[in-house]
Each structure stands twice: as C-alpha cells, then as structure tokens.
Predict the 3D structure of the following.
Amino acid sequence: MPAIEALYERFRDEVAFTVVYIREAHPEDGWVVIDNREENIRVFDPTTNAERQRVVESCALRLAVRIPVVIDEIDDGVAAAYGAWPDRLYLVGRDGRIAFQGGMGPFGFLPEELEAAIEEELDGQSLEPRSTLA
Amino acid sequence: MHPKAGLTAAAVPVDPNEITPADSPLRFEDVMASPVIERIRTPALGVGDAALDFSFPELDLSGGAPRPTGRTFHLAEHAGLRPVALIFGSYT
C-alpha cells in the first residue's frame, strides 16, 4: 500500500480516498497462498457482517492505513457492482461517473495508473462548470 | 491489502499454483470457476457509467486499531465537489 498512501498524501486535499474492504482473496478456507503462510496471515472467510468487522479489527495493526476504511456488506453488493475482487482501483469523477477503472488485481492493481487518472481529472477541472450543489 | 498489489505484469507467475501450498482447500482454477467469485471479480460498471452509490460507516485504522470516525462515507455526497479514489481490497 505504500504507493497508494503516497497518492493519498499528495492528493488528499483535492480527492476523497476510501479503502473498501471486500471479501478475502486468500482465506484459509479458500485459495491459500504461500506468501501469507510465510507471514503467518491466516484468515477464514467471514460469513456475517460482524465477522467481517472482526477481521478488519484483527488486521488493523498490520494494515495501519492512513486512508479511511469502509467495509462492504456480506452480500458483496458493492464488490459485485465494481468487480472489485481481489483488489481493484477506481476513480469516480466529479460528475459522479467512473473516470478510471483499474485492472483486476493483483497484477492489474497499478497505482501509477490511478495517479495518471487523478492528474487528468484534476487538469480538466478548471474547464468544467463548478457545481451548484450545496 | 493483497500481498501482490502493485507488482508489475512482469512479475506475474507463470503458474498461479506455484504460489499455492499443497494443503490449500482450493486452487486457482477452483476459485476462477466459482460463481460467487465470478460475480465479484467481473465489473458491472465501466468507464463513463454512473458510479454505483454506496454509504458505509467510516473507520480510521491509522493508529493500528480501528476507530470509528463518526462519519459515514457516502459516495454520492462527493459528486460535483471532488473526485473519489476507491481502493478495493482485503487483508489476504
């Protein structure tokens, strides 16, 4: 997450950032990967909202992200709309439309692409009429 | 966040099962064939589409322990004001 945190520090005054915690990618009862075993990361896939909350609580110390975090509900409704699993980056433009959709993680999870999308969005900002929303 | 997040395409393993221990309940191909996973790995939205609105209580994990900020993140509230970067991921 260091690259994402760096983007957050650079753009936090102009862009809202939110980490959305979704269904586990490599739970112990699913597809386990060796890297997690080596780091003693062992998480079973939550089956309730309360369990999902507890996983976030238990991993908070290791994550320690500065970006605010929200938790998708156990029906995975948000993850399904955004095709977010296992991880994915998005930028929603000021117009409320998707300005950037990153590739499927982990290998399509490219912070430099998000950075470019933010720069493009902000560059175009002055050309757009300002919202009259309160 | 996923341990491989941020790697470049050049680092993609040839065989995903090279990173799978022998006692893993599922393997890469099992996961990719799962309808549950298919649903959440396939975007229903694309560039130019209206973003699906959502609203959840916000947590601050920066101190190493989750602390409710007292705020609710509501995507639609940012419309017309600022772009929003969404970072989806999990612990593993």
Summary: The beta strands of chain B are 55-60, 67-74, 84-89. Helices of chain B lie at 28-33, 35-41. The first helix of chain B runs from residue 28 to 33.
